[in-house]
Design goal:
- This protein is mainly alpha-helical.
- Helices cover 77% and strands 0% of the residues.
- It contains twelve helices and no strands.
- It is elongated and about 60 Å long.
Length: 253
């Protein structure tokens, strides 16, 4: 069964990746928004923002990476919605393939596409002056957190991709996710915020994830923050995975 699942997922993953290579504008569009935000905040607002860091791009990049992921997963919901409407899912169900491989192919495609987008954003940040003395273990830790965060948000994206009534509805869900970093420590320290906003910002997942990545980049002790960040990522991933599979079974039943 495992061999059957892996083989089917690999074939369907190749199909999804070919669709992306034929539409490179998908990845380009995904990275435009976070890069534009990074340029705007560094070169326009950066001089007026007190972040406590010598380089604002160093402070800003972790949040921009999360916005890149939130922007990218909307295309997962979009592609999944189109597959549902085209009837390809019904054709897959008539074939002797593992049912879960269809969803996993979309999820892994999202992971690959988002990793490419993240690399592009980091390269632009380097051109803008981003520097980090972090070693290989710290970079691997950052990559692991970003992969977990991508998987968590991608499984969230699967739900509207399966249940939305329109293309706009399938992709519009990502807007609150893109906005969430603005109510966190991604752009400014939370201690500059008024009481209620600060309370929300300090106890939502983006802040713990951003702070952990920022500490890893700057070679600061991460303490318990990394476990809080991982707990958020894993918790969201498990809940989203369960509800996505429930939605999938209802659609194909």
């Amino acid at each position: 069964m495992t061999k059957h699942f892996v083989g089917d997922t690999t074939v369907l993953l190749g199909r999804s990746l070919r669709h992306i290579t034929r539409s490179v504008d998908t990845i380009i569009t995904t990275v435009i928004t976070p890069i534009a935000m990074m340029l705007l905040f560094v070169y326009v607002f950066g001089g007026a923002i007190k972040s406590g860091s010598d380089s604002y791009v160093n402070y800003l990049l972790p949040g921009i990476l999360l916005i890149t992921i939130a922007s990218g997963i909307s295309y997962t919901a979009f592609r999944l919605f189109l597959d549902m409407k085209s009837g390809i899912f019904e054709r897959f169900q008539s074939m002797p393939i593992a049912r879960s491989s269809v969803l996993w192919a979309h999820v892994l495609t999202s992971l690959v596409a988002n990793l490419i987008s993240l690399v592009v954003v980091v390269l632009v940040a380097l051109l803008m002056g981003f520097r980090s003395g972090a070693g290989v273990p710290a970079w691997l830790a950052v990559a692991g957190i970003l992969i977990l965060f991508t998987l968590a948000l991608t499984w969230i994206a699967v739900i509207p991709g399966l249940t939305a009534k329109s293309v706009d509805g399938a992709s519009a869900f990502s807007y609150p996710l893109i906005f969430l970093p603005f109510l966190s420590s991604a752009f400014v320290p939370t201690d500059t915020m008024p009481g209620p906003v600060r309370a929300f910002a300090e106890h939502q997942p983006v802040t713990s994830i951003v702070n952990t990545i920022r500490d890893l980049f700057t070679q600061q002790p991460v303490g318990t923050a990394i476990w809080i960040a991982l707990a958020w990522c894993v918790g969201i991933l498990i809940v989203a995975y369960i509800f996505a599979n429930i939605s999938y079974r209802r659609r194909i039943s």
